[in-house]
Write the structure tokens for this entry.
Amino acid sequence: MTNRPQAAAKKAFPVVVRHAVHDLTQPLQALRMLLGLPGVVAEDSRELPRKLDAALTEMEARLAQVQALARVLDGSTDVETPRLVSLADVLALARRGRPELWADPLIRVRNPDAVLNLPPRAAALCLNALVDNARRARPKSRIVVGPREGGRRLIVLDDGDGMNRATAARIARALAGGEASVLGVGLALAASLVAGWAGEWRVASTEGVGSIVGFSAANPA
């Protein structure tokens, strides 16, 4: 019998792959330009190292997300259950997975010593997906990561343009297992992981003010 994490991964995998193919198009095109392949004008060679690193980092991040979901799908990843863990421990795992993401000086962490009831490795993957999504959608916004509801929920807050009520509700439904096609590759992975430990999502946003997206364990200790 298929367990809950594998069932969630099976549902999300086709969507994640489609989004990954779409998301990889831009860095692949950037590589073509940098390398001056036939039919493409090469850019200024002085910018090559930086832009090459950026394109390769982007590709590695997207492929890692697909690989993570594939491991859940084929059962080769140990399924964690929520347990008491400090936010600092989750952040350490998140930084290890995406060091370039956490180098952003506009990201702030509140109350890193807070104790959360979450599966650490899966929570780190979800946290990276949320921060990555916030940064892509609002490149210049400030991002705050921290606990809510006495450590029951981990949230990512940004002070960007926000979303209207209908858009926020649609994303909330998609994260909870609805129309997954509205999610990017990272959020589709996060949705499958949270579903795997029977967690829940909270999405709140105000246009012109910012957004809050958070996830939790279903039955906190």
